[in-house]
Design brief:
This is UDP-glucose 6-dehydrogenase. This protein is α/β, with parallel strands linked by helices. It has 14 helices and 16 strands. The structure holds nicotinamide-adenine-dinucleotide.
């Protein structure tokens, strides 16, 4: 089967490699450097499994049938499925996702292939696919939410917690196409630990074919729940810190309840990354005229948390000043969202930086992956020893053993050294 994939980012690249174990896959990107890198067998993103696959060390004996191109005719002509994995950034002006790249990719597919089943894997507003099908008069557009984590992009596709596809339930052919798409993803998966853990007692990868609007809602509600959980333990930490209590002990006692579970509960500077900040805002926008309290609170809570963290750091700066340092330097250790992540889209530390810089604090950034002398006016260094020496206070969203020798300078809320 020929499958085209538009976009070779975290989602597109991992899905393309997964499917190229059993299908002829043509991935297309509009950035020539990315295409050149992939054609040279190099991954543009840090991901152990993607690198393993690109090195030809996938499981099984079959070579990958994987091609990368800038040419829409090569990618899309004759494809049975065309998967759309392009960005959907949140547009603060419109208070909605900017879906223009999805629309551009769909137009390009249709120019070369009127019949392919288009499967949108980008995260989109609730109701988007149904609206687009109607606007374009095109019934061959489906949606399948993507649940991968950055840093584990291909791993999460090889070991999916579930596979969900959306198709209009009154269109038998579309429902069948959605089932076939689920089978394709499932065929590429490796035996998963989740097989033994299905909450409903079933075995195997849980599969769900639902309406496209329900599938879109599943994605946004899942990410908003994850954001809620981060925000909840962060607010617990804010309370404990403000009252001089041990966050660690409280979280431990709370999470011994098996319904609450002892995971995904490590305090941080706020939820960040490409998806949670924008997906929560999009879900809130979708609530238009529908009563709610929680969704808005989840969005607001992240701002309150960053305000609180910034206030705590400013207190440390004030203390340094009181002890005789004229212009204390706050060192930001890494701009990344979390340990193991290789990008810093919407990382919480940036929000904290903005706040303390707004109060006139000098910030020095240690970020070895950033090849530029400054970041929004703050000096960037790759010299860890000089960074540790020059910074009076070091802030780090996630602890690193790199900082062990200066731990008295470090401010972090990473209590459990995970997530
Ligand atoms: N990153 C994640 O963890 C994650 C998880 C689940 C869902 N998603 C969603 O998936 C979508 C993609 O996210 P990502 O992280 O893979 O993005 P990304 O920025 O890593 O990759 C997107 C790629 O699409 C390319 N592109 C842009 N316009 C194009 C076009 N018209 N045709 C072909 N390629 C084009 C870009 O050059 C880029 O390489 C977003 O909607 C995101 O919300 C992301």
């Amino acid at each position: 089967m020929k499958i085209a994939v538009a976009g070779t980012g975290y989602v597109g690249l991992s899905v393309a490699l997964l499917l190229s174990q059993h299908n002829e896959v043509h991935a297309l990107d509009i950035v020539p450097e990315k295409v050149a890198m992939l054609n040279a067998g190099k991954s543009p993103i840090v991901d152990t499994e993607i690198t393993r696959f690109l090195d030809g060390n996938q499981s099984g004996d079959r070579p990958l049938d994987f091609h990368v191109t800038l040419d829409p005719a090569q990618a899309y002509t004759g494809a049975d499925y065309a998967i759309i994995a392009t960005p959907t950034n949140y547009d603060p002006q419109k208070n909605y996702f900017d879906t223009s790249s999805v629309e551009a990719a769909i137009a390009a597919v249709r120019e070369h292939d009127p019949d392919a089943w288009i499967v949108i894997k980008s995260t989109i507003p609730v109701g988007y696919t149904a609206k687009l099908r109607e606007e374009l008069g095109d019934r061959r557009i489906l949606f399948s939410p993507e649940f991968l984590r950055e840093g584990h992009a291909l791993y999460d596709n090889l070991h999916p917690s579930r596979i969900v596809a959306g198709a209009p339930q009154d269109d038998e052919e579309a429902v069948e196409a959605a089932h076939r798409f689920v089978e394709l993803l499932s065929q590429g998966a490796e035996p998963s630990e989740h097989e033994r853990m299905n909450p409903d007692g079933t075995e195997g990868i849980p599969e769900l074919v639902v309406g496209t609007t329900e599938a879109e809602a599943i994605k946004l509600f899942a990410n908003t729940y994850l954001a809620l959980r981060v925000a909840y333990f962060n607010e617990l930490d804010t309370y404990a810190e403000s009252r001089g209590l041990s966050t660690r002990e409280i979280i431990k006692g709370v999470c011994l309840d098996p319904r609450i579970r002892d995971d995904y509960n490590n305090p941080s500077f706020g939820y960040g990354g490409y998806c949670l900040p924008k997906d929560t805002k999009q879900l809130l926008a979708n609530y238009d005229k529908v009563p709610q309290n929680l969704i808005e609170a989840i969005v607001d809570s992240n701002t309150t948390r960053k305000d609180f963290i910034a206030t705590e750091i400013l207190e440390l700066v004030a203390r340094a000043k009181a002890s005789g340092v004229a212009d204390p330097v706050v060192g930001v250790y890494r701009l990344t969202m979390k340990a193991g992540s290789d990008n810093f889209r919407q990382s919480a530390i940036q929000g904290v930086m903005k706040r303390i810089k707004g109060k006139g604090v000098t910030v020095l950034v240690y970020e070895p992956t950033l090849d530029q002398p400054d970041f929004f006016g703050s000096e960037v260094t790759h010299d860890l020893a000089a960074f540790k020496q020059r910074a009076d206070v070091i802030v780090s969203n996630r602890w690193s053993d790199d900082l062990a020798d200066v731990k008295d300078k470090v401010y972090t809320r990473d209590l459990f050294k995970r997530d």
